[in-house]
């Protein structure tokens, strides 16, 4: 997939290839901002239903062939204050019949907590 038209946003984008039987996803592109935030590369890693909080929105995007959007707080376990993220997932299809990839845009921010 050519991301040149999305170059400005690419640091916060992910592309996950859809694998079936059983349904799972393999990250083929993960933007630099996201990898910096997570502290590791996700390219080549599988997302399965073993991590339902992350898996379910991707599965809904594919099974219902529609965009999914969520906003959530999450402790990334990195020693930083809990953060929040907003994620938009879009189904992609080479043949306009079956979803074969998911394009995601993710924005992270710190949640301000009261002392």
Structure described in brief:
With 115 residues, the protein is α+β, with helices and mostly antiparallel strands. The protein has a single domain, classed as Beta-Lactamase (2-Layer Sandwich).
Strand-helix topology:
Blueprint lengths: L12 E7 L4 E7 L1 H7 L7 E2 L4 H12 L4 E7 L8 E10 L8 E10 L5
Identify the notable features of this structure and list them briefly.
disordered C terminus; 115 residues; six-stranded antiparallel sheet; Beta-Lactamase
Description:
This protein has 115 residues and is of the alpha+beta class. The chain has a single domain, classed as PAS domain (Beta-Lactamase, 2-Layer Sandwich). It is 17% helix and 37% strand. It is built from 2 helices and 6 strands, in the order ββαβαβββ. It has helices at 32-38, 52-63; strands at 13-19, 24-30, 46-47, 68-74, 83-92, 101-110. A 6-stranded antiparallel beta sheet has the order 3-2-1-6-5-4. The N and C termini lie far apart (46 Å). Mean pLDDT is 85; it is low at 111-115.
Low-confidence stretches: 111-115
Order of helices and strands: EEHEHEEE
Number of domains: 1
Annotation, overall tally of beta strands: 6
Q: Specify the biggest β-sheet.
A: 6 strands, antiparallel
| Strands side by side in the biggest sheet | 3-2-1-6-5-4
CATH class: Alpha Beta
Helix content: 10-25%
Number of helices: 2
CATH fold descriptor: Beta-Lactamase
| Fraction of residues in β-strands | 35-45%
Mean of all residue-level pLDDT scores:
85
Give the helix/strand class.
Answer: alpha+beta
N-to-C terminal Cα separation, in Å? 46 Å
Q: What's the overall geometry?
A: globular
* CATH architectural category: 2-Layer Sandwich
Q: CATH homologous superfamily - what is it?
A: PAS domain
Cα gyration radius (Å): 14 Å
């Amino acid at each position: 997939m050519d991301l040149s038209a999305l170059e400005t946003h690419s640091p916060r984008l992910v592309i996950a290839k859809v694998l079936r039987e059983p349904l799972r996803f393999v990250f083929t592109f993960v933007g630099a901002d996201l990898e910096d935030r997570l502290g590791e590369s996700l390219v080549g890693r599988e997302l399965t239903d073993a991590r339902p909080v992350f898996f379910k929105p991707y599965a809904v995007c594919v099974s219902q062939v529609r965009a999914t959007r969520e906003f959530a707080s999450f402790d990334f376990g990195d020693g930083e204050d809990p953060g929040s993220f907003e994620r938009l997932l879009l189904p992609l299809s080479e043949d306009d019949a079956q979803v074969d990839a998911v394009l995601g845009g993710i924005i992270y921010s710190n949640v301000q907590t009261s002392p």
